[in-house]
Specification:
This protein has a domain of 56 residues. Helix content is 52%, strand content 4%. The protein has a two-stranded antiparallel ribbon with strand order 1-2. β1 and β2 form a beta hairpin. α2 runs antiparallel to α3. It is flat.
Length: 98
């Protein structure tokens, strides 16, 4: 029996993250809100712009390295580890003669 190779088209737009100025949209909004809050708290436009630019640069780096990094980090504390080699009890190996 000969198996035919099946191909399924995957469009690039499905796998692309939604970005604003090259940053994932949620991170961009977070940087914008924190920059605005810094501006309101300190009453200085320079501090708000500096905070936004710093967070924007960090968000751009995160988006370029791994888009799902924030979701992974936020969900990491929610579930316990399935396997932790540091908590494993040592065991003895016995070789039986044949």
């Amino acid at each position: 029996m000969v198996q035919q190779v099946q191909t399924h088209p995957v469009y690039r737009a499905i796998n692309k993250p939604l970005t604003i100025w090259g940053v994932e949209r949620r991170l961009f909004f977070l940087a914008l809100v924190i920059g605005g809050a810094t501006f309101n708290y300190f009453g200085s436009l320079l501090s708000g712009m500096a905070m936004f630019c710093g967070l924007y640069a960090a968000a751009r780096w995160v988006t370029a390295s791994d888009v799902q990094m924030i979701r992974i980090l936020l969900n990491a504390g929610r579930w316990r580890a399935e396997y932790d080699p540091g908590k494993r009890d040592p065991f003895a190996i016995e070789v039986l003669p044949q």
